Amino acid sequence: MKLYGRRSSINVQKVLWCLGEVGAVEGRDYERIDAGLDFGVVNTAAYLVLNPNGLVPTLVDGDLVLWESNTIVRYLARAAGNEALLPVRYKQRANVERWMDWQLATLWATLRVAFLGLTRTPEPARDYEAIRQSHADAGRMLAIVDEVLSSQAYIAGRTFTVADIGICLSAHRWLALSRDFADVLDSAPSLPFVVDWHRNLAARPAFRDAMGSRPLQSQSV
Fold first, then answer.
1. Residue 212, number of CB atoms within 10 A of its CB
2. CA distance linking residue 29 with residue 52, whole number of Å
3. Which residues are within 8 A (CB) of 35 and not within 5 positions of it... i.e. 6 or more apart?
4. Sign (positive/negative) of CA torsion 127, 132, 138, 141?
5. Residues 204-210: contacts with CB within 8 Å, 24+ apart?
6. Which DSSP helix (H) or strand (E) runs through 32?
7. Measured distance CA(217)–CA(94) in Å, rounded
8. Is residue 211, in this structure, part of any structural domain at all?
9. 0.85 exceeded by the pTM?
């Protein structure tokens, strides 16, 4: 397999984390090609044939080409036959996929404004009103997660699933913004269950491998 995408992208990190959870090793089971931002590649004619959106990640597995991070994650879990990551029973699977869609369409769509505003936008061009609103709104969304985690260990129930991957990566960025930019953001709500859950997941080898050692400021979508 080939995976196109820079390691700093949250959507590429989803895929890398899932690959780690199914036991795939970079250089042995798949090749990763840096793409996006300073790496370029995504605007080349050859890449646009694979992914007409010109975005990352893109997975090539034989004659199958996939883009959209959640689709790739689901494919990898099913291809590996890992029913713990992505349940086969339709009600359990729907619950997992509901949270995956919520992360992408609701949580990250909201937090993205604050994240890009503080990590990729030059200081003179920052819209702090929009940044603070984005961070605060994302905090209220994560309070929903906190309530869920108050009565169960993981997002979709008692076991770790792919639902945890995207939400944890989003929470990782929200928590880092709250810490590193406290001087310009409004006070963040206390989310004790999210904090504990994030700490536990951050200790997983697949999370550490996916994230590498890059600081927040070098991470982007």
1. 12
2. 26
3. 4, 5, 6, 41, 42, 47, 56, 58
4. negative
5. 204/21, 205/20, 206/16, 206/17, 206/18, 206/19, 206/20, 206/21, 207/17, 207/20, 207/168, 209/16, 209/17, 209/20, 210/7, 210/13, 210/16, 210/17, 210/20
6. strand 31-33
7. 35
8. no
9. yes
Structure tokens at 115: 């994240």
Q: Which of 79, 98, 119 finishes a domain?
A: 79
In this structure, the strands spanning 58-61 and 2-4 are: antiparallel
The CA distance from 14 to 148, in Å, is 21
Domain for residue 85, yes or no? no
Query: In this structure, which amino acid lies at residue 125?
Result: A
Condensed to tens digits (0 to 9), the pLDDT of residues 136-178 reads: 999 999 999 999 999 999 999 999 999 999 999 999 999 999 9
Cβ atoms of 3 and 31 closer than 8 Å: yes
Is 96 part of any domain? yes
Q: Which domain holds residue 142?
A: 90-206
Give CA–CA dist 63/7, Å, rounded.
Answer: 24
Q: Amino acid letter at 66?
A: L
- 160 occurs within a structural domain: yes
Using one digit for the tens of pLDDT, what is the confidence trace for 20-76?
Answer: 999 999 999 999 999 999 999 999 999 999 999 999 999 999 999 999 999 999 999
